[in-house]
Design goal:
Largest sheet: 2 strands, antiparallel
Number of strands: 2
Radius of gyration: 17 Å
Helix content: 40-55%
Strand order of the largest sheet: 1-2
Distance between the termini: 23 Å
Number of helices: 4
Shape: flat
């Protein structure tokens, strides 16, 4: 059985989302409890992100201007997740990527046949 559980939240001008995918021999009668547990884990993951200090506020003007240390944008994050999922890949430490690293990953994923 394949179970997908997603949670998303728009908070100000930021969007957060988390998806868990489980492929396992889960008895049909236990599926609801597994979905509930995964949903709670996804929601908790987003809450942890909201409670972290905002890294972009601590960046200097130089890194904000040229993208050399600024974290990837919400649009980049969304595109990487969609492309990676379509290609059966997973990108580790997604939230730690810089704008430049995210651009390189997007280019690589776009060059791979879906």
């Amino acid at each position: 059985m394949r179970i997908l559980s997603s949670y998303s939240l728009k908070h100000g001008d930021e969007s957060y989302f988390c998806t868990f995918e489980v492929l396992s021999e889960i008895p049909k009668e236990e599926a609801d409890s597994v979905v509930d547990e995964l949903f709670l884990k996804a929601r908790s993951a987003i809450q942890r992100q909201l409670n972290q200090p905002a890294n972009k506020d601590s960046l200097g003007a130089e890194s904000k201007r040229n993208g050399n240390g600024a974290h990837l944008t919400a649009k980049q994050r969304s595109l990487i997740i969609r492309l990676a999922k379509d290609r059966g890949e997973y990108v580790n430490n997604l939230n730690d990527l810089t704008i430049q690293q995210a651009s390189e990953i997007i280019s690589r994923l776009m060059s791979v046949e879906a």
